[in-house]
Design goal:
Helices cover 0% and strands 31% of the residues. It contains no helices and 26 strands.
């Protein structure tokens, strides 16, 4: 495995762990205590907060903001200029006019499970969980948990389809299963329509 590649203009704090084969591009900022796994790409101008975990093989695209304590599993895609927030009730000052500091609030994070994607300029409002292999459409605002394999879009984001591991929308079949047309994997939707489960081959 090759060593991590870090551009000279990137701002990397002490205490950051960066795995083999990862690339940290121009003007990216990675705060102390963050863990960047193996073969991760952190794009130009992206921000990764203190203590954020980024799983192996993930991509954080240009100018995305991943605030602590976000937790990204392996193979996660964070699109350009997407934002993962960390403050439920944001304020700059207290009611008495004094400026807030770290002791005045409790950070809450966004969890993104394996293989999930967050599209360009989408906003995930913490605390939310993006399920495995789900897709958040570009520009969506996520205010509640996203189930695995869901494709959500809009403001606020709502499920509009199911997607396979390939990222392609699943197609309804005559036997009531759903087919990933790219991989051939089949899924079945729950009776309440809230989840899908892969059918064992």
């Amino acid at each position: 495995m090759t060593a991590a590649r870090i551009q000279p203009s990137a701002d990397i704090d002490d205490g950051v762990e960066i795995g083999d084969g990862s690339s940290i591009w121009h003007l990216a900022q990675v705060r102390g205590g963050a863990r960047i796994g193996k073969s991760v790409v952190v794009g130009r101008g992206a921000y990764v907060g203190s203590g954020v975990n980024v799983g192996d093989g993930s991509k954080i695209q240009n100018y995305a903001l991943v605030y602590e304590p976000a937790d990204l599993a392996e193979g996660v895609f964070i699109g350009p200029a997407a934002v993962l927030t960390n403050d439920t009730f944001p304020r700059s000052i207290n009611p008495d006019g004094t400026q807030k500091d770290a002791s005045d609030w409790e950070a809450v994070g966004v969890t993104v499970e394996r293989g999930a994607s967050v599209g360009a300029r989408a906003v995930c409002v913490a605390p939310v969980r993006i399920g495995a292999w789900a897709t958040v459409a570009a520009g969506a605002v996520v205010t509640r948990d996203v189930p695995p394999h869901a494709l959500v879009a809009g403001v606020p984001a709502r499920r509009i389809k199911w997607v396979g591991k390939s990222g392609v929308p699943l197609e309804q079949q005559s036997d009531k299963t759903l087919l990933d047309p790219k991989t051939g994997e089949r899924y079945i939707e729950s009776e309440d329509g809230n989840t899908v489960t892969e059918v064992e081959s």
